[in-house]
Each structure stands twice: as C-alpha cells, then as structure tokens.
Amino acid sequence: MELVKSIKTQVCIIGSGPSGLLLSQLLHNAGIESVVLDRQSRAHIESRIRAGVLEHGSVETLLEAGVGERMLSEGILHDGFDVGFDGERFRIDLKALTGKSVMIYGQTELTRDLIATRLDQGGSIVFSADNVTPSDLESGNPVVRYEKEGEQYEVHCQFVAGCDGFRGVSRESIPQDRRKYFERVYPFGWLGLLSDTKPVADELIYANHERGFALCSMRSNTRSRYYIQCPADEDVNKWSDDAFFDELSLRIGEETAAGLERGPSLEKSIAPLRSFVCEPMRFGNLFLAGDAAHIVPPTGAKGLNLAISDVHYLARAMVEHFKSGNSVHLDAYSQICLTRVWKVERFSWYMSSMLHQFPDHSPFEKRMQRAEYDYVTRSHAGAMAIAENYVGLPYD
Ligand code: FAS
Ligand code: PHB
Prior knowledge:
The chain is 36% helix and 29% strand. It is of the alpha/beta class. The protein has a domain at 4-63 and 106-183 and 275-358: FAD/NAD(P)-binding domain (3-Layer(bba) Sandwich). The strands form 4 sheets. An 8-stranded mixed sheet has the order 7-6-15-16-17-14-18-21. Strands 9-3-2-13-20-19 form a 6-stranded mixed sheet, covered by helices on one side. A hairpin with a 7-residue loop joins β10 (130-135) and β11 (143-148). P-hydroxybenzoic acid binds at residues 51-53, 204, 215, 217, 225, 298-299, 301. Residues 14-20, 37-40, 45, 50-52, 107, 129, 132, 163-165, 168-169, 271, 290-291, 298, 301-304, 307 line the site of arabino-flavin-adenine dinucleotide (FAS).
C-alpha cells in the first residue's frame, strides 16, 4: 500500500504566480500558515515575461506586504502615457488629472521578489507538484492532493485559494451548475518583443494605426518591451526581429520611429486577447483569485493589478476570519471582487475597442473609434475617465 504523506496547514494555495505568492506573504505577515503548490519549476515561473505596469493600489499593497524594496529602487514612476491615432499623439497626464502615477516594474521581477521573500521567511512553496487535485470543497475540511517525485501527498486545510491562472485546476473544480462563465475572444493577438535597447520614448505609447495597434513599453531605461497587434493565429516564427521593428516603425509614425533603437530580441511571443469572468469567485471553502477567476485584454494594463486587488480582499477576509472568527468579508468576497472585476473588464474592453483594428468593423464603427479618440483627447472629463481607471480605481 502506498504511504500518503499528510500535511496540515490553514490555507492551501494552488499557484505560485503573483496571486498565490502575494496571498501567502500577506497571510504570513498576519501569522497565518499556508502551503503553495505549483506544477511548474521555480526556474520556469521566474522566466515568464508578462505584465509591466503597477497601479497605485498595487504599489501600496506590495509595500504593505513588505516586498516592495527592489520595486522602489529599480521601478520607474510614470506620470502619464500617450495614446495615438493615425499618426496623432496625445498625452494622458495621469498626475495632473488624478494626483497619482503608475510604477513600471516587470511582473518577472515582482515574482522573483515574492519567491525570494517567501523562502527567506520560511515559506512553503512546492514547485513541480503534479496532479494537484482539490476535493471536499464544501465539507469544511478541504483536501488538496498532489504528487512529487513519485510520492503522494495530502494537504489538509481550512481554505483553498485557487490562484492557478486561466488554465488551472481550481475553477474547473466548481461544478458546472454552480458557476457561470462570461467570455469575449478578440479576433487578434499581441506579438511581443523584449530587447536590451533604450526605450523609444520616456513613457508608454498606445497607438491605433490603420495597419494595427502598437504599444511601446519598457522594463527599465535600457530594456524595451514592444507589442504589435497580429492575427490571432499568427506564427511567431514568421517574424524576424527586423520585420517586427519595421512594422512597429510604420505603426508608431516616422517621427517617433526616428528614435527607435533596434536590438536582438531576448524574447518574442504571441499572447491571445480575451475578456473572461467566472461567477462566483467562491465555492464552499475554495476562493478564486487572479487569472483563475478572470482575464482582461492587456490594453488597459490590468491583469496583474486585478490579481493584486483580489488578493488584497482575500487576505483581509481570511485574516479577519482566523483572528476574530468573523466571516463577513469572506462571505462577501466574491461580490466585493466581482464589482471591481467588471469595472476593470469594462475599461480593458473599452481601451481594446478604441485602439485596435477590427477586421469586421464597418465604416461607421471605424468612425466611432476615431470619434472616441477625438472625445477623450479634447475633453477633460474624457481624459479623466481614462486616467482614473489607468492609475487604478480605489479599493472598496
Ligand atoms: P498566473 O497565471 O501568473 O500564475 C498561475 C500559476 O499557477 C502559474 O505559476 C502556474 O504554473 C500555476 N498552475 C497552473 N495550473 C496549475 C495546476 N493545475 N496545479 C498547480 N499549479 C498550477 N497583465 C498585464 O497587466 N499586462 C500584460 O502585459 C500582460 N501580459 C500577459 C501575457 C501573457 C502571455 C499572459 C498569459 C498574461 C499576461 N498578463 C498581463 C496577465 C498576467 O500578468 C496575469 O494577470 C497574472 O499573471 C495573474 O497572476 P496569477 O493570477 O498569479 O496567475
Ligand atoms: C508591458 O509592458 O508588458 C505592458 C504595458 C502596458 C500594457 C500591457 C503590457 O497595457
């Protein structure tokens, strides 16, 4: 008979991305134990290239968690960003409009900081955990089983946090008749390139050109991150670095492209664009957070930030429960998160709708896009609507 090793903890967290790691850190800071399980290796997780912009609330939450030191020293504060349309450009002055800035700091670096901090503080993260399977989620005593190096394990806990991303196991552990999905898949993707080159501009540029959307971003003053809209089924191997930079130059316009420094790609990949929400974000003692519960198109720079706000609410609710036995915020968790999630879904959909070329757009819809751009770049209220969402709506 195979011996199953039993582990006991207060919260079992499935997923060692930003959601799971930040939750584990916030719980630890409150003296609550957790075990984090991830099917990938540490090296794989720390090599992923994902988000680059942190909202004001995310910066505050990371500082509160005690993981913001390198972000403060290496991150770059941005007081605005440019939107462009057919060669025109307009700066959304975040600082003047909202009094707030955003922080440019790569998710890759943030994940490395979180893992290092958790392990330095004795955190339990099981990498390369196979066949992670949550069960007994409505029993009050959930169990999460997994295998590692041929050994079987059972994690006995009070709560399970499903932080395992869009293709994880947690969300699908909710019976089909107890969950509802809302989804929109966009008819294009983003081809992204990372290079050790000086960014083309001091701030981000989101541009809608008749050839397609382009985004000029960065990771530091010497590392650039660029994206161009591409067909959803595009083959990344079709794109040489030169072809990418040629296309980017066409979309950002001659004047801006004159300052574009080319360099070998460190990474090149295509991300699909979708809007997705699972309701509710709780089932029994399973709580979903981050991409496990929702996906936004990256046009609003919200995916990582929404994950952080979910975790802010979940940690607050779990700490309150364990410290005072009060479950008010736990019981309200799904509704509190979803109210914010849908507002962020709206903003990400809105920015994607205004800034991309849609193959099936009628001439009328193309005029609506231009009119939206003309409105937000010539109206204080219009620019404010973008600015207050981009720096991040206040946490409830
Ligand atoms: P994550 O997906 O980051 O982490 C989930 C973790 O769970 C992973 O480590 C995975 O290995 C693990 N896991 C999955 N299934 C498991 C299982 N069965 N058992 C155990 N572990 C399991 N957001 C932005 O704001 N801007 C961007 O530019 C941007 N670009 C992106 C590009 C790509 C290609 C992708 C996929 C996402 C991008 N995002 C972007 C969104 C991204 O940053 C997410 O919002 C963020 O990673 C969410 O973090 P988590 O919820 O922790 O999920
Ligand atoms: C990035 O730098 O990867 C990035 C920045 C802003 C976005 C999306 C991606 O909206």
